[in-house]
Design a protein that fits this description.
With about 50 residues, the chain is mostly helical. Helices cover about 75% and strands about 0% of the residues. It contains four helices and no strands. It has one domain. It is elongated, with a radius of gyration of 18 Å. The longest helix is centred in the middle third of the chain and has 19 residues.
């Protein structure tokens, strides 16, 4: 991987932590708005979005 992208080893070591931080931020944001979201509308949007 290092040879393909020309990135130093220390930079490649940041890939997994960056993904983990992004996941934690997304989960925290989803949890913060979970009580304010209309569940039926969200499920409908998900079903329609999956069908498209």
């Amino acid at each position: 991987m290092r040879e393909s992208f020309g990135a130093p080893e220390w930079l490649l070591g940041l890939v997994a932590p960056a993904g983990t931080v992004g996941f934690v931020v997304f989960v925290a944001a989803a949890g913060a708005v979970a009580g304010r979201v209309d569940t039926r509308r969200l499920l409908l949007v998900g079903v329609v979005g999956t069908g498209v």
